[in-house]
Design brief:
The chain has no helices and 11 strands. It is mostly beta strands. The strands form 2 sheets. Strands 2, 4, 5, 6, 9, 10 and 11 form a 7-stranded mixed sheet that branches.
Length: 125
Amino acid sequence: QVDVVESGGGLVQAGQSLRLACTASGRPGSRAAMGWFRQAPGLEREFVAAITWNGEKTYYGDMVKGRFTISRDGAENTVYLQMNSLKPEDTAIYYCAAAFFGPPDLVRHQSYDYWGRGTQVTVSS
């Protein structure tokens, strides 16, 4: 079994920063590609960022390029999402996902096998 757990969400003012963390546990020795998606009330899930299993390549959604940075911990399936210059439009539940089986297209939510329950990010004006 694989458990995916996010942390680090909260309420901040526009222009401030947050750092999210996510760990996919239960598969020691198996490295997964990892991604972040978000979903605002009444809207569909949106791709935010992803990183390959070896950390060699990253992907970003157009709305967060230049502001968000994804990175991973080489020791395990742990990833971070540094979110700078936050805007009210970034308000959403942020979900972390792991892809153990491939080859995946990491910008598509269908490529991921396991999902966390999400962490709320709220950005006020």
